[in-house]
Amino acid sequence: MRQRWIGTAVALMLGVAAFLPSAMGGQAPHHPHATAESRPLDAFVGLYKENSDPDVVLSISREGDSLFVESARMARFQMHAEGKDHFATTSTKYEFIRDPSGAVTAVSVTGGRRGTELTTELYTRTTNVAETLNHFRNYTRTEVMMPVRDGVRLHAVVLRPEGSEHSGEPLPIFLQRTCYGTEGSNSATVNMTKPELAQSGYIFVFADIRGRYESEGQFVMNRPIVHVYGNRTDPKLVDESSDAYDSVDWLVKNLPNNNGRVGVWGVSYPGFLAMMAGMDHHPAVKAVSPQAPMTDVWMGDDFFHNGAFRETYGFDYTQRMERSKRDVPVSMDEDMYAYFLRYGNFENAAKAADAQNLPTAKRFVAEPAYTKFWQEMAVQPKLTSIEVPVLEVGGWFDQEDMFGTQAEYAALRPHDTKKDPEHSVYMVLGPWSHGGWAGSARRLGALEFGSATGEEYRKRYEVTFFEKFLKDRTGFDLKDTATFRTGVNQWERYDVWPPKVGFHPAKLYLGVRHSLSFDAPTGGDVRDHANYVADPSNPIPYRERPIQSTYGSGSKWRPWLSGDQGFLKDRKDLTNFTSDAMDKDTTITGDIVAHLFASTSGSDADWVVKLIDVYPDDAPGGMAGYQTMVVEEIFRGRYWKTFEAATPIEPNKVKEYTWSLHGADHTFLKGHRMMVQVQSSWFPLYDRNPQTFVPNIMTAPMDAYTPQTQTVYFSKKHPSHLDVLLPDTEK
User: Fold this and answer.
1) Distance of alpha carbon 301 from alpha carbon 269, whole angstroms
2) How much of the chain, in percent, has pLDDT values that exceed 90?
3) Residue scoring higher pLDDT (671 or 3)
4) At the top level of CATH, which class does the domain 503-730 belong to?
5) Residue ranges per domain, the chain?
6) Architecture per CATH, 394-497
7) Coil, helix or strand for 317?
8) CATH, domain 9-127, list 2.60.40.60, 2.40.128.50, 3.40.50.720, 2.60.40.2470
9) Per-residue model confidence (pLDDT) at position 118
10) Is 242 in contact with 227 (CB distance < 8 Å)?
11) pLDDT confidence of residue 22
12) Is pLDDT above 90 for 329?
């Protein structure tokens, strides 16, 4: 089981299995001659298109007295009869559905996984003629142990095209270093997860990092860089950059018939590791692609966002990674909202799970501010040059590492003149949850994107990027940034991000009577504010309850950022500002920055700001009144002065809080409305702010949690607003 959705080839396979039946069945020999008894099997032959994702097609064919199933990303496997209309592979069941005349019209497939649960998908028959959809290339598998500078040996799985070891064109190495295990890496997984590159021919290497799975040494979460750049020998100074260097050095010297070029990629934690391989890099590393990379886990990735602690995620992920060398699933049987509310603070919750002595959990409690410990782990401040071509990839709806992609690009872009492709950074941002580009990605939750955005990204950008820099092939034509513009569902390309040509800055103002517009306020301070009472004993849930463990059974974690915010319509502890219905399509682009003028009756407060697209009440397709978030982010008030130390807020004093809600490229369609929602809890994704200042919220006593009145201002003197970019055509 993989809980962080995409981490290794196995995790990618499980992600794909969310919309493909299992590929784990047994393959049988062909039967070229049909028998009379086998002819009824013709009733099942044909192509079947998945109802929820028409890009996923199954081909069911007959050979002799056997049925076989395949798809473009699943090998051909025999189906064994279990009844008249029931067949199965080893771990997938197929139930065929007939119309009143007896003709087979569909098949229900049970066996793909989302998280830990089996899923059932319905496929509609589109033709009674089967096709060969699968074009897998066979890869042979070997395992190696690679020594690094301090004598530790790192384990890796090597997959190479059959027959390529001593003959044919030398091949580049395609490396993923991972903390999620490599035991499931095989020919089927590379063909399934990277079909275009697998067909092209690469030496795929999946390597366990230090201290994880089959590798020796001690694991350290997001191990910071400690070695001296250019020093290749000091055994006392090891980190993920030096381990990547030493691994690449061993691979190019020991894998037969490689062309001396290495590409490194990874999603999430492996995305962090991919960036490490591009820093003080080995000369053989010619391209890296950090995808949704963990970059700064305090400022905006896994564990904190602007000082607010991501409680459920920190609780689950720390246990998963630090209880043993292998994944330890966290799947509790109760509503995590109730669990964390019962224990009050994180220290108590960790003790109840016997997790308080795990290394990162101890740091959460001891160092909740942006201390030297967290700063040294951060990647983006160290990105002071572009050493190799970099392709950053991220999703607008990434529930885990939205920050990293944009932060790394922003750090690298000033060093890119675009005069030298060998020292350039590129970025692709699409309508995806964490790692969602591994699949078709035509939809996310209730949102439809009109095309297979994941397939489009991989074929147009990822494949051509690596083919260019590892094989000198043409086809990669991205100048700088590609984004998928949600709302109108179309790809855009820009010379830089945020775009400068064709757009101008604008301010979206909160206004009187809960209005929202691009017109600056003109009123005074007497009545131009909105109040709500935030009660820590009844915090606002971040998604509908019950809230399962992050990767637990039945969890709705993966698509939650695309969910309907209408479930909060009856809450009184927030305030909304809504525009008139759009009289024309209105596009906003760029880095959306919140400027919130607010006060609290307490001495500490959290501020959550969401920009929401509100669908009209007559929207078709079940989307009537739907409220989907475009951007959103939290700011912990105690860090109003500096992130390095907490400072009390003076009660009832107006302060301007400024923070990024991250990038967007979105069109509010005609008839839709814009909404800005402000609230002071987002639980239990983020721990509760007591709203009474305490030195350390991780250990806050129960009596510190008190209701407070929060006030948001929107006057001429205190103009709360969002910074956005508008197209020049909207001047």
Assistant:
1) 11
2) 87
3) 671
4) mainly beta
5) 9-127, 136-291, 394-497, 503-730
6) 3-Layer(aba) Sandwich (3.40)
7) helix
8) 2.40.128.50
9) 74
10) yes
11) 37
12) no
Place of tokens 């109040």: 531
- What single-letter DSSP state applies at residue 255? S
Q: Please tell me whether the overall predicted TM-score, pTM, comes out greater than 0.85 for this model.
A: yes
Which tokens hold the place of 531? 């109040």
Going from the C-alpha of 131 to that of each of 47, 71, 209, 684, the distances in angstroms are 7, 9, 41, 49
What are the pLDDT digits (tens) for 696-709?
Answer: 999 999 999 999 99
Question: What does the pLDDT read at residue 38?
Answer: 52
CATH hierarchy code of domain 136-291: 3.40.50.1820
d(CA 48, CA 125): 4
Give pLDDT tens digits for 8-41. Answer: 333 333 333 333 333 333 343 344 444 444 578 9
Report the sign of the C-alpha dihedral through residues 339, 345, 347, 348, in that order: negative
Compute the mean pLDDT over every residue in the chain, rounded to the nearest whole number: 93
171-178 vs 258-267, strand pairing mode: parallel
CB atoms within 10 A of CB 359: 12
307 contacts 639 by C-beta, under 8 angstroms: yes
- Cβ atoms of 112 and 17 within 8 Å: the answer is yes
Chain centre distance of CA 715: 38
Provide the token pair at 21: 């039946």
Percentage of the chain modeled with pLDDT above 70: 93
Query: Which tokens is 182 given?
Result: 């490599």
Residue type, 691: Q
